[in-house]
Specification:
The complex is a heterodimer of chains A (117) and B (118).
Chain A lengths: L3 E4 L2 E4 L4 E8 L5 E7 L6 E7 L2 E5 L6 E7 L2 E7 L7 E8 L12 E2 L3 E5 L1
Parallel strand pairs in A: 2-11
Antiparallel strand pairs in A: 1-3, 3-8, 4-5, 4-9, 5-6, 7-8, 9-10, 9-11
Chain B lengths: L2 E3 L4 E5 L4 E3 L2 E3 L6 E7 L6 E7 L6 E3 L2 E6 L4 E6 L8 E8 L10 E3 L3 E6 L1
Parallel strand pairs in B: 2-12
Antiparallel strand pairs in B: 1-4, 3-9, 5-6, 5-10, 7-8, 8-9, 10-11, 10-12
Chain lengths: 117, 118
């Protein structure tokens, strides 16, 4: 596997279900991100992890729960979602070193297309 | 606050035409980074270029070229001799100096849908 992989690619779940999205990066990066892409809206940053530590939670509802067990893996646990949460969820990673970040580009996975019924 | 505006929602061209995608940004940071990404129908965002605010040199990569104008806060993207495979959504993005809480925050534009007809 190369780059950033995401599973599953498609997910349909009911509002009472619990599911998890998985992301894995094979680039040796130390920062990982979750984004949400809804129709007719800009990409929205949800969470940022740097060296497994969460450094950003962009006012995301608690029904989305991220987990980063190591620098290569990132999960997004979902429970009691709403239909408006249907979207493409994208994972990304980047290499950041030192205290002052260098603005390195983020590499994205193919996304998980989530439909909440 | 940072903002990225891609005023062109959709562009349609015929193969071999040149096309320019506009990007205008707003930021109070003196150091910042600009990016272009391509999102084909498969959904994955593909990184195309990163430009640092202190480097105003324009760049050319094959049929792609980028024009960074700090004076007008613009970072436009031109595809020369477009091809059907260029059809995708193109996003311009901006990030700050990545210090402290601004770490990792990419602000995206709305995207421009480019359709290249044979």
């Amino acid at each position: 596997e190369t780059g950033v992989t995401q599973t599953p690619r498609h997910l349909v779940m009911g509002m009472t279900n619990k599911k998890s999205l998985k992301c894995e990066q094979h680039l040796g990066h130390n920062a990982m991100y979750w984004y949400k892409q809804s129709a007719k809206k800009p990409l929205e940053l949800m969470f940022v992890y740097n060296f497994k530590e969460q450094t950003e939670n962009n006012s995301v509802p608690s029904r989305f729960s991220p987990e980063c067990p190591n620098s290569s893996h990132l999960f997004l646990h979902l429970h009691t979602l709403q239909p408006e949460d249907s979207a493409l969820y994208l994972c990304a990673s980047s290499q950041e070193t030192g205290v002052i970040r260098r603005g390195y580009e983020q590499y994205f996975g193919p996304g998980t297309r989530l439909t909440v019924t | 606050a940072q903002k990225v505006t891609q005023a062109q929602t959709e562009i349609s061209v015929v193969e071999k035409e040149d096309v320019t995608l506009d990007c205008v940004y707003e930021t109070r940071d003196t150091t910042y980074y600009l990016f272009w990404y391509k999102q084909p129908p498969s959904g994955e965002l593909v990184f195309l270029i990163r430009r640092n605010s202190f480097d105003e040199q324009n760049e050319i990569s094959g049929r792609y070229s980028w024009n960074f104008q700090k004076s007008t806060s613009s970072f436009n993207f031109t595809i020369t001799a477009s091809q059907v495979v260029d059809s995708a959504v193109y996003f311009c993005a901006l990030s700050g100096p990545h210090v402290g809480t601004s770490y990792g925050k990419l602000t995206f534009g709305q995207g421009t849908i480019l359709t290249v007809h044979p």
